[in-house]
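so im writing up the methods section and need the DUF469 family protein record in one place, dumping it here so i stop losing it
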Amino acid sequence: MTKQHNRRQRKKLHLGEFTQLGFAISARLASPLTDGACDKLLDEFIQDCIEPLGLRFGGGLDEDLSGYVTSAARGRSASDSQRDKVRMWLSLRPEFSMSEVALLTDAWQA
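--- predicted struct ---
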């Protein structure tokens, strides 16, 4: 039996019209990088790709880049066009031999 939630409950639980979407990413480094080079690459990813698109990234880069991307705007979802732009940025970087950008998923109910 499905429980019915009122508007306040749906908002609190991020259900229905309050669902927020994001996407997982992963990318394999073509060759090992020094700690400084990893930090620089991660900074470039965030400053040149994530922030200009109005997104947030939770994750990191050590042997590989992995994490989850959501909208930086409160109550908003990441879009397919933002997801495509992140995929394009990763694919154009020579530091990565392979990258994967997952489909949009519910950021709160994963």
